[in-house]
Write a structure and sequence with these properties.
The complex is a heterodimer of chains A (230) and B (375). Chain A has 230 residues and is mainly alpha-helical. Helices cover 78% and strands 0% of the residues of chain A. Chain B has eight helices and 21 strands. The chains are: A mainly alpha (230), B alpha+beta (375).
Chain lengths: 230, 375
């Protein structure tokens, strides 16, 4: 990879690292929330739905500021976490949190749609065969929703790769520390002669985004073919 | 093994208010569509929480709203065969069959009853196939096997044949007969078909608008116009007999109460005990033994009762050596023949009037004698 400069390479590597962690860490809560929204009937369901979708609607800078406010070293949660040695603000871990929060709505939406596409009568059949609700979820719902879950992960990964506003607000743009691919592009464009570096990174992000999009399209087509009683 | 159900529940403007008991054997919940049969079966399976109910199986309480008992469906051991099969599309036939078995006996347990059930249902060739390309009849056989392998204490079959064409129905019905005769698992069978009642039912519960309007043995219910969705036109008698021989011309001779009855197109071997459904509208009455008639079956009997029926019709009940035979005639014919209690006459039944769907193999336990029930 000698066609990439060290700073460019660092940014790509950090972005992949941040996106991978953000996707993996948001998956379990994502599946849980998606299942709640798809199948649950409880008061406050629409509030939860709105809360999950909030990062999609809010200006990313606002989300980043809110994160800084809550998870900053002076913030209510950030101060507690600091006691346990976990600092988020201005660290790559904070970039993971920012990316996870921003990608969460996309992840939940894809998983929720795929869970909704699973015929509840199949889940009833599972229960009648002796499977507990948890077992039904693990052996019927999850396998049938799997293509949608994978599609959601692809989307979340791509979104995390490209997250800019919340990241730069929450963790700034420190080369080697918190400079992800998009913030690196931004930084290169601010200095004279940085266009070539920016262009290389732009090509990489276009390729990653295209692959992610095609992958999720392919998986979405598969989910529509499965999960129904034919 | 007794299922006892006492339930009240309302779904919008439809309300269920039913009480019944189902002993061993096949109990058919019978009625037209929308009578509440499937909802009642769903309550037994635990698919919804009834407003007020007491449901017990074998003396064990499944639901008691007064005592706030509601056993969740997966802990009831009530197997279900649904109209639409509901096979898991992500599993192949073998995995579908073993799904419930694993919850009933643990993941390591060897499926000792796997081979016998697979063999009984003729599934050997399908085991490694996916479920999406199975035919309707194959799907229902797999669904039945899957429910049986979950070791249910009660099997619910909710219109399992309704989505199948006549040919496929004829393929599946014998499996339910074998189930009743060989496995002894009590079955709650939801149906709107009189021919399924005639073939399978040890006991029939008739539902209308969410209420039980009658119950009894299949032959009693099918003889009661008021209980049948089709009214008089559905009235039929059920005769029990034994296959004697199959003649070279394709006619099978069945011995019914010491008399030969000639039927067409049954492939059952000699010695098989059978039950036959004879529709009352397919029976003619003659005062003298008719001569020069094409009908092969002429059974002497004595009029036991003449019951007024729909419109210009009436139902005549004959006592014959073969059992009780019902004939549906016009009142004009009854006047013309002067039929009344005690009149000696002959019932005339065309061989072809008893179709393949009306002929059921009845197993060794199923006794033809009217007062006995399936053990």
């Amino acid at each position: 990879m000698d066609w990439l400069g060290p700073q460019e390479w660092q940014a790509v590597r950090l972005s992949l690292q941040v996106a991978a962690w953000a996707t993996l860490l948001s998956l379990p809560p994502g599946v849980w929330v998606a299942h709640l929204l798809a199948r649950g009937q409880f008061p406050g369901r629409s509030v939860l739905n709105a809360l999950v979708h909030l990062p999609l609607i809010l200006p990313p800078v606002v989300t980043g500021y809110l994160l800084l406010w809550v998870f900053g070293t002076q913030g209510p949660v950030g101060a507690v976490l600091e006691q346990f040695g976990l600092v988020l603000a201005f660290r790559w871990t904070g970039a993971v949190l920012a990316a996870a929060v921003m990608a969460f709505p996309l992840l939940v939406r894809a998983i929720r749609l795929s869970i909704e596409a699973v015929d509840p009568r199949l889940e009833q059949a599972g229960a009648s065969l002796g499977a507990s609700p948890l077992a039904v979820f693990a052996t019927v719902t999850l396998p049938l929703a799997l293509p949608g879950i994978l599609a959601g992960m692809v989307l979340a990964f791509a979104k995390s790769m490209g997250e800019f506003g919340a990241t730069i607000t929450f963790v700034s743009n420190i080369p080697g520390q918190t400079q992800t691919l998009p913030t690196a592009v931004y930084a290169f464009l601010q200095v004279p002669g940085g266009e070539a570096s920016a262009l290389r990174l732009v090509v990489i992000s276009v390729v990653i985004s295209m692959v992610a999009l095609l992958g999720s399209e392919f998986l979405a087509r598969r989910v529509s073919r499965r999960g129904r009683v034919s | 093994m007794t299922l006892s159900v006492d339930l009240r529940h309302s779904f919008g403007d439809f309300s269920l208010d039913a009480r019944f008991e189902a002993p061993a054997g096949i109990t058919v919940l019978f009625g037209r569509s929308g009578a509440g049969k499937s909802s009642l079966a769903g309550a037994v399976a635990g698919l919804f929480r009834p407003e007020a109910a007491r449901i017990s199986l074998d003396g064990e309480t499944l639901v008691d709203t007064q005592r706030r008992v509601f056993r969740p469906p997966h802990r009831r051991r009530v197997g279900c065969v649904f109209q639409d099969g509901r096979l898991f599309p992500h599993l192949n036939v073998r995995q579908n069959l073993l799904y419930g078995h694993r919850f009933a006996s643990g993941w390591q347990a060897e499926a000792r009853d796997f081979d016998p059930i697979v063999e009984m249902l003729g599934l050997e060739a399908l085991l490694e196939r996916g479920t999406t390309d199975l035919s309707g009849g194959e799907r229902q056989r797999v669904a039945l096997g899957r429910a049986l392998l979950s070791k249910p204490r009660l099997l619910i079959a909710d219109e399992p044949l309704a989505a199948l064409d006549e040919g496929r129905k004829a393929d599946i019905l014998p499996y339910f007969e074998r189930l009743r005769d060989e496995l002894g698992i009590p079955v709650l069978y939801v149906s709107h078909s009189a021919s399924e009642v005639a073939r399978l039912a040890s006991r029939v519960i008739v539902l209308e608008a969410g209420r039980v309007i009658g119950e009894g043995r299949a032959e009693d219910v099918l003889a009661a116009p008021g209980l049948l969705p089709g009214g008089d036109s559905g009235v039929a008698s059920i005769l029990g007999g034994r296959v004697r021989t199959r003649h070279a011309d394709g006619v099978t001779e069945v011995e019914v109460g010491g008399l030969p009855l000639f039927l067409s197109g049954i492939g059952l071997p000699a010695g098989t005990t059978v039950r036959l459904r004879v529709r009352a509208s397919d029976v003619m009455i003659s005062l003298t033994r008719p001569e020069g008639l094409s009908a092969l079956n002429i059974i002497p009997g004595i009029v036991e009762r003449v019951m007024p029926g729909d419109g210009s019709g009436a139902i005549v009940r004959l006592r014959a050596a073969a059992g009780t035979i019902l004939a549906r005639l016009t009142r004009r014919s009854i006047r013309a023949l002067n039929l009344s209690e005690g009149t000696a006459c002959h019932a005339v039944i065309k061989s072809l009037a008893i179709a393949e769907a009306d002929i059921a193999r009845s197993g060794p336990q199923v006794n033809v004698a009217p007062e006995q029930e399936v053990g």
